[in-house]
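Hey forum,

I'm writing up a methods section and want to include a predicted complex as supplementary material. The small molecule is magnesium ion. I've pasted the protein sequence and the SMILES. Can someone with a working setup run it? I'll credit the forum in the acknowledgements.
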Amino acid sequence: MPSPSKLKAIFFDIDDTLFSTSGFARAARMASVKAMIGAGLKMEAEECFQELSEVIEEFGSNFERHYDKVLLRVPRERYAGISPAIIIAAGMVAYHQTKFRELRPYPDVVEVFKLLSQTPLILGIITAGLEIKQAEKLIRLDLTRYIHPRAIFITDQLGIGKQNPKLYQLACQHMGLVPACCMYVGDHPLYDVDIPNKVGLITVHNKRSGKYLKMKGNTDPRYVIKNMWELVDILRREFGMHI
Ligand SMILES: [Mg+2]
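Reply by user p_vandermeer:
Happy to help. C-alpha cells for the complex are below, copy them as they are.
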C-alpha cells in the first residue's frame, strides 16, 4: 500500500464527471426545441431536435448560433410571418432557463468534495473547453469552495489541449508536485486516461455517463469507478487515508 502521504492532489475533469453533461444537454436542447415550436416554428419536436443535434455535431458545441442554423435548414414556410429572431430567442431563453434550473452536480460529488476538502489533499480541475464556459459550470455546480483556487486548469486558458501530455505536466508543476503524487479522475478513455498515464499520474476512469462510455483506450486506468464513493473507497483502501 502506498503511504498516505504519497497522494497530494486529485484533479477532476468536469463534463460527465462532476455532472451529467450529456443528460443536461439533452434536456436543455429539448426545452429549446419546444420553445421554438411554441414561438411558431411548424415542426415536430423530434424532427427539430434531430436538426439541432446535427447542427451541434457539424458546427461544434461551442458555436454560438445553433438555432440560426436550424432555421436556415428548414423551409421558410415553416415559420412564415414570424420573425426568425423571436424563434431563435425563444430557443436561447429556454436553454438558459434549463441551465439555471437543472445544472447540478451528482449528489455524491458534493458529499465527497466536502469530505475531501477536510483532508490535506489539494482538489483541482483539469478540463477541456472555453475558459468562461467551463468556469461558469464550476460556479453553477457550486463547487469552487472545495477547489484550490490555483488548481483550475482550462485548455482554452492555457492554449494546450487534452491530447497533449504537457497539459497534465503543467498542472502538476504549477502545484509544485510530481505526477506520481497526483490523481486524475475523468470519463474519456483517451484524453483522461491514456494521456495522464503517459505523464505518470494515477488515473481513475469514471465510467458513469456520457458519450465515451463504450470507447476503449489504449492503456488501462489505475482504477475504475462508477461514482465518487468508490473513489473514497480507493483512497481508504489503497492510500490508507482515514476519511
Ligand atoms: Mg469529461
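Some notes you might quote in the supplement: The two ends are 16 Å apart (CA to CA). The chain has a mean pLDDT of 96.
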